[in-house]
Amino acid sequence: MKLCIRIMKNEKGDYTAVCSSLPGCVTTGHTREEARENLDEAIRGYIAAISNCAVPQELEVVETV
Fold it and tell me: Which domain holds residue 28?
């Protein structure tokens, strides 16, 4: 499964991470890395919630600018 994500600095100085392919799949983090980790977890939760299949161990995530 290949998903595109976007990580940007927000007005609080933290980072917001979005996966626009999965509506509502948005999270934040104090650092870019924390936002990415939180988004990975959110993506896995999203996929698990909408499907009855196992979530792949490795997700191919491509960050867009």
Answer: 2-63
Summary count for the chain: helices (H), strands (E):
1, 4
pLDDT tens sequence for the chain (65 residues)? 788 999 999 999 999 999 998 999 999 999 999 999 999 999 988 888 887 666 666 667 777 75
* Angle 49-43-38 from CA coordinates, rounded to 5°: 125
Q: What total of structural domains would you count in the chain?
A: 1
CATH of the domain at 49: 3.30.160.250
Distance CA 10, CA 45 (A): 24
The model carries a pTM of 0.80
